[in-house]
Amino acid sequence: MIQTKLLVIGAGPGGYAAAFAAADLGMSVTLVDLDKNPGGVCLFRGCIPSKALLHVAKLINEAKEAKNWGVDFGEPRIDLDKLREFKNKVVGKMTGGLGQLAKQRKVYFIQGRASFTSSRSVKVELNDGGKEEIHFERAIIAIGSEIISIPIFNIKSDRLLNSTSALDLPAIPEKLLVIGGGYIGLELGSVYSALGSKVSVVEMMNGLLPGADRDMVSHLTQMLKKKFDAIMLESRVMKLDPVKNGINVTIQDKTGAERVEFYDYVLASIGRRPNTAGLGLENTKVELTTKGHIRVDNTLNTTDPYIYAIGDIAGDPMLAHKATHEARVAVETIAGKRTAFEPAAIPAVVFTDPEIAWAGITETEAREKGIKHEVAKFPWAASGRATTLDRFDGVTKLIVDPDTERILGVGICGPGAGELIAEGTLAIEMGAVASDIKLTIHPHPTLSETVMESAEVFFGESVHLYRPKK
Amino acid sequence: MSREFKLPELGENIESALVVKVLIAPGDIVKEDQTIIEIETDKATVEVPSDIAGKVSGVYIKEGDKVPVGAVVFSVEDAGSAAASAPAADVKATSAGEKAPTGSEAPAKDGKKTAPASGGAGSGAASGAATASAGAGTTADASASASAETITDVVLPDLGENITEAMVVKVTVKPGDEIKENDTILEIETDKATVEVPSSASGVVTEVFAEANKHFKVGAVILKVKSVAAKPAPAPATPAGPSPEEVEKSKVAVMQHKIAAPSSIPVPVAGASAVSIAGGTVQLSEAELKELKEDLANPELIANPPKIFLDMQPPILQNAAPAAPSVRRLAREVGVDIRKVPGTGPGGRISLNDVKAYSKALHEGRVSEQPQAGGGGAFLRQQPLPDFSKFGDIERKAMSSIRAKTASHLSYSWATIPHVTQFDKADITILEQLRKQYSPEVAKGGGKLTMTSILVKVISAALKQFPQFNSSVDMEKQEIVYKNYYNIGIAVDTEHGLIVPNIKGTDKMNLTQISAQIAVLSEKARAKKIGLDELQGGCFTISNLGGIGGTYFTPVVNSPEVAILGVSRGLYEQVYRDGEFVPRLMLPLSLSYDHRVIDGADAIRFLRWVVEVLESPFKLLVVE
Question: Do B322 and A406 touch (CB under 8 A)?
């Protein structure tokens, strides 16, 4: 039996951050996870491996574009095994590093599956077969989410991929169908497209990336229309029929017409959901929300005073950086500090080409909720840096409160948008007004100038964009 | 209709009480003045008597609950609705009912709602919306159709103070009669008057149990009536609760945050992100319904939602204060609500200095903010405690409510009253002889003649001589309140903590009566049975630690009183008298007083007066 001050269940970006922060505060910490090192979905099967592959995809695409600039690399020859090895090396380096960090901090790492037996104890089924009982003073649940599956996916075929198996690069499909036009499907679709697959996307809604502003998405859609074989909106997959070397897919379009198409691989990526099954929550006072998340208050405390929950399991948005931030709040609360989870903005990034990133409120949200706002947009066609990249398909926009001139939201579409959004997030968190951004000197020539210039647009005085003064 | 018993006023400044014991359960017959619960307030444990009688239809509190004054404790079935049962009807009585839509949907749909919860889960937005509208039928309506043929018991209603039974003089209805609510059904004679008893139900009389010239107890069934009107039906058969949407909505609306959601709610799957509420159907258990109802009936919860649940608010606060994260954190740490801080920066941005200025203003009382719970005094903020566990093993225990109140009250007294303590000694050699001499006489009255009881008598007389010692200070109105009554409090050391009951009208009591009263109060205090009226209205407190030892101490004035007398152990001392040292029994006295109304000279005059009376009790007869 183990006795620990803090038990952290799940070692993803929420769990390991919590465990490390708690250890740094002098708590005795036990961290339980199924994988052999900390990292979770993000490092083993999500953010990190997909970004390694997207980096390669970007390289392939730019090499292709280079032809227009007088440099011809010829057709790329792709060694899939080596590419997989690179990706695995990235993952191994990162997770191995975390394992080291855990050891240095004397975090006791246990490989197994934990299940609550009471509000103060869990039993762990160890990966190597044994059992362990852990008594804790406080626990943080950070076991994240799982891939959503629906009945039509219940077929026996190694040609049906999910986000995990797709990252293992089983092959370069000739024809790949991506089910779901969300960020996971589009990112992985982009990878396979760059590797040479003919990629099609089928999405139930009338646009890709539900939740993001349409003007942002339209740039991406246009680019994807060039790169992908087909983008089927308002369409749904009715049936998957495994055949030799592929799957026959029945797709219904918005008129209700159905047709059958052959793909040699299908990637199902319709989303993720919190998974609380098997956690033994019935032995605690933890309650769930109607959406199946664990109900937490703004200190990440569940309805059980001894138990906290962070990350995907504790609510949307399911983002690693939200989990990491929550980890800190939960640990500090446990350490007796007066703190709360109260972000003004949680940035979201889609790592497609172009990238889309936003923070704070979106224009759509502001409109729907009747929040008084003005939008100031700076198209990248007017940016010197974007021009040098031969990329005109970007836009930076600010959503501004016209009364206080406070920045309420920032949206960026274009290469590197994911890096640029950090400035917008900081602006929102700091309660910056448009003048603050306008009056901050931004380095030239960089894409970050587009943030400054969009603030200038708000005042009708952008240097590189003529708009009549308001 | 059922009637409700609400937690009565418990006295000054008592807003809520902890339920220590619940002595009734649904189905019990409760009589008036019967003790139904025991509660612990900040001051004492109190038995709460019922002021209604009848058959208990629902108990809405449980042991361990903190219940605000005015909250419904339990309800009884009045005559007429005996069969109408709790859950469905009572949700309506609470604020949930007001929130719940009152559309009268067809029972068919409600019938569907009662089906097991496996139904629509996962079928997405459309079915979710459909269920939501189907959920519009209230539970009362739902049960109405089911109850068309309900037989209702009409019981002998509560007849007023202390009447537990009555003799029936005349029965004015017979089986087959159709009666309406409030029609006279009986004439009864109590020991006070003859009364016509109205029916509490409408319908056709099926059976009459009342007979002339027989006695019936309050709560006894006197008629059975077949209801023709739509009355709330027996609930067990129709467990249809509000849909989860309604539950969620009313919970959120009424209480904003704190809710207890049924954990059995099915989880929507793919594509449900657009639907904020599950598209499934849910059957609320009675316990869940009751819990919800309790929450909704609790005004304290509504006023002070204890937790902000993240799923009840968008992930990003729309009304987030325009302040840097570091500033927000500082505000939280110093206990300032950042949303209340006026920002002086561009766009109303709140700077670190704004928070500091606001915090300073708070402390200087220029801005009023609800004091944060948990502080030691009413206005002092506790400094952060070190992590004691770093230094060794520790154990944390919750303060008992008596301890918490004592801590808070004494902090307040000590911090607001400019205390001065005056010491003196009384020669009680003769008094002690007299005490022993008269002890047997006093014992006949049931008490023990002690120094404390003698002091109660002496102080009562002293207060008449020095009225400023029987006063209170009203700084707000710049007035001094003089009291023309004499209630002396006695600090009683109990295992539960310090309790100060007082004896009322001590100026009109003799020592035998006072001693007997002290015995009664001490016993009550130790048994945690002190009544609230015995804790209120004190004028002056005596704290006698002489039984344990010590010489002098500095007692803290029991605000809003203005003085307190501390008594220590009497000891024989060498006293120089008439040219020689003689052993005299000397009693050390410590008088703490509120210097705002009592000057030092007055204090020593008062104390000298007390000493003189103790040394020469005959003086009392002279002044009185």
Answer: yes
Q: What is the spatial distance between Cα A395 and Cα A380, in angstroms, rounded to a whole number?
A: 5
In a 10 Å sphere around its CB, with 0-12 CB exposed, 13-18 middle and 19+ buried, how is residue B176 labelled? exposed
Would you say the CATH fold of B151-226 matches that of B2-78+86-111+241-303? yes
Active site residue B215: no
Tell me which CATH code domain B2-78+86-111+241-303 carries: 2.40.50.100
DSSP notation for B463-520: HHH-GGGGEEEETTTTEEEE-SS--EEE-EEETTEEE--EETTGGG--HHHHHHHHHH
Q: Which pLDDT score, from 0 to 100, does residue A60 have?
A: 95
Query: CB–CB of A369 and B320 under 8 A?
Result: no
pLDDT tens digits along A220-277: 999 999 999 999 999 999 999 999 999 999 999 999 999 999 999 999 999 999 989 8
Q: Which amino acid is at B540?
A: F
* Confidence at residue B407, expressed as pLDDT on a 0 to 100 scale: 85
What DSSP character marks residue B48? E
Q: What 3-state class would DSSP assign to A2?
A: strand
Instruction: Check: CB of residue B456 under 8 Å from CB of residue B518.
Output: yes
The full set of domains in chain A, from first to last, is 2-145+273-334 (3.50.50.60), 151-270 (3.50.50.60), 348-458 (3.30.390.30)
The CATH fold assigned to B151-226 is: OB fold (Dihydrolipoamide Acetyltransferase, E2P) (2.40.50)
A431–B324 C-beta distance less than 8 A: yes
Q: Which of B269, B347, B348 sits opposite A150 (nearest CB)?
A: B269
Q: Which of A55, A325, A442, A444 is catalytic?
A: A444
d(CA A364, CA A213): 6
The DSSP-derived string for B112-135 is HHTS-TTSSTTSHHHHHHHHHHHT
Tens-place pLDDT, residues B168-195: 888 888 888 888 877 888 887 765 566 7
Mean pLDDT confidence for B82-109: 39
Contact A344 B309 (CB under 8 A): no
d(CA B573, CA B578): 15
Q: What would the mean pLDDT of B467-481 be, rounded to a whole number?
A: 91
Q: Which residues of A touch B250 (CB under 8 A)?
A: none
Non-local (6+) Cβ contacts of B547 within 8 A are B569
Nearest-Cα distance to chain B for A339, in Å, is: 7
> What is the distance between the alpha carbons of residues A246 and A197, in angstroms, rounded to a whole number?
14
pLDDT in tens, B306-361: 466 666 554 455 556 788 888 888 888 888 888 888 888 888 889 888 888 888 87
Interface of A with B in 166-225 (CB under 8 A): 204, 210
Q: Domain segments of chain B: what residues?
A: 2-78+86-111+241-303, 151-226, 417-623
Q: Does A150 touch chain B (CB under 8 A)?
A: yes
Which A residues in the span 408-437 are in contact with B, Cβ-Cβ below 8 Å?
A: 429-433, 435-436
In this complex, do B278 and A291 lie within 8 Å of one another by their Cβ atoms? yes
Question: Taking CB atoms and an 8 Å limit, are B310 and A431 in contact across chains?
Answer: no
Q: Which two tokens stand for residue B541?
A: 């407190």
Of the residues B257, B419, B496, B595, only one is catalytic, namely: B595
Q: Residue B265: its chain A contacts at CB < 8 A?
A: 288, 290
Q: DSSP code of B323?
A: B
* 3.30.559.10, 3.40.50.300, 3.40.50.720, 3.10.180.10: CATH of B417-623: 3.30.559.10
pLDDT band, very low/low/confident/very high, at A193 (cuts 50, 70, 90): very high
What pLDDT is stored for residue B165 in this prediction?
Answer: 75
Shortest distance, CA B236 to any CA of chain A (angstroms): 26
**Could you tell me whether strands A175-179 and A198-202 are parallel, antiparallel, or unpaired per DSSP bridges?**
parallel
Q: What are phi and psi of B4, to 5 degrees?
A: -115, 145
